[in-house]
């Protein structure tokens, strides 16, 4: 008899997902089980379906077929407030109310836990203070969010999701529009969430080499399907990257971590493409 998977082992799952926009299919026949307390990174070329899959996992988008399970229960059947207590999402370009302070922004993460009268409790206060401490944003908690640098703002939004106290957090391109210093700061912070705080994290990343350095697990998407699931980034090959991104690369190793990095291959070192056969006359 087949044993049912333990929802605690895979708190978030996609089963035979089909989805798209305006009648146009984007994802087809997607199966994905997200391990608990790990960092799963979705990678692939533009238009491969990464952000669409993330939207499905958070119920921002409904599949046309298949289902998403949260702790073993159909996401579509759960009340919105219950989902918000279990799953948080940080979109790529979150909106910031004008003039709002960092503390007030992070406090909004407590809304799913408050009653009808929105009474503020010591539990709420402790959750916000903890989120500020984890993200190292307490020193400017009283400043307006729009007065901060891009990297500081992104840490504030991560604090907002942490204050929500969900077991699962989804990030859509969390390093977009940041310079290198802040990209590293944000990824170091996100990578600590599973290891030090027991969170289950799924993120979309555009930069493949960042994904290689920080991911526990990689999901390669191509043309609306999961092309390959890699349980250990060190197993990624140049052949796989060539297949997914359709460009020649060479595989090197990071001199400090030993993990793979991929660089474009010199055109002269790559075989010329095979010409198409002439049609028969």
Salient structural properties:
281 residues, alpha/beta, 4-stranded antiparallel sheet, 8 helices
Put the structure in a nutshell.
This protein has 281 residues and is of the alpha/beta class. It has helices at residues 50-57, 80-86, 102-107, 122-134, 150-163, 180-197, 208-214, 238-245; strands spanning 12-21, 24-34, 39-43, 65-70, 73-74, 87-90, 168-172, 200-204, 217-222, 225-230, 249-253, 260-264. It is 29% helix and 25% strand.
Description:
With 281 residues, the chain is an alpha/beta fold. The chain contains eight helices and twelve strands. The protein has helices at 50-57, 80-86, 102-107, 122-134, 150-163, 180-197, 208-214, 238-245; strands spanning 12-21, 24-34, 39-43, 65-70, 73-74, 87-90, 168-172, 200-204, 217-222, 225-230, 249-253, 260-264. The N and C termini lie far apart (59 Å).
Low-confidence parts lasting 5 or more residues at pLDDT below 50?
Answer: none
Helix and strand pattern: EEEHEEHEHHHEHEHEEHEE
Q: What is the 3D form?
A: globular
Q: What's the helix count? A: 8
Average pLDDT rating: 91
Task: Determine the structural class based on helices, strands and strand pairing.
Answer: alpha/beta
Query: Radius of gyration, rounded?
Result: 21 Å
Helix content class: 25-40%
The biggest beta sheet is recorded as: 6 strands, mixed
Strand content: 15-25%
How are the strands ordered across the major sheet?
6-7-8-3-9-10
Distance between the termini: 59 Å
Number of strands: 12
């Amino acid at each position: 008899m087949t044993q049912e998977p333990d929802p605690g082992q895979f708190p978030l799952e996609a089963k035979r997902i089909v989805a798209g926009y305006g009648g146009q299919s984007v994802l087809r026949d997607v199966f994905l089980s997200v391990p608990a307390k790990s960092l799963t990174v979705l990678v692939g070329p533009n238009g491969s379906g990464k952000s669409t899959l993330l939207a499905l996992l958070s119920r921002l988008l409904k599949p046309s077929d298949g289902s998403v399970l949260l702790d073993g229960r159909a996401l579509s059947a759960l009340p919105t407030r219950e989902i918000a207590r279990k799953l948080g999402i940080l979109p790529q370009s979150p909106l910031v109310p004008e003039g709002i302070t960092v503390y007030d922004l992070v406090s909004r993460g407590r809304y799913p836990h408050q009653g009808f009268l929105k009474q503020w409790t010591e539990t709420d206060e402790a959750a916000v203070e903890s989120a500020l401490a984890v993200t190292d944003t307490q020193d400017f908690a009283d400043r307006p969010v729009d007065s901060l640098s891009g990297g500081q703002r992104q840490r504030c939004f991560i604090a907002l999701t942490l204050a929500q106290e969900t077991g699962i957090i989804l990030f859509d391109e969390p390093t977009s529009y940041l310079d290198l210093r802040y990209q590293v700061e944000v990824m170091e912070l996100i990578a600590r969430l599973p290891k030090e705080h027991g969170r289950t994290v799924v993120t979309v990343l555009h930069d493949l080499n960042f994904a290689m350095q920080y991911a526990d697990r990689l999901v390669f998407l191509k043309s609306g399907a999961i092309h390959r699931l890699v349980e250990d980034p060190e197993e990624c090959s140049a052949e796989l990257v060539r297949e997914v991104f359709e460009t020649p690369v060479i595989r090197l190793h990071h001199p400090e971590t030993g993990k793979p990095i991929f660089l474009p291959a010199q055109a002269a070192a790559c075989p010329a493409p095979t010409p198409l056969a002439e049609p028969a006359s």
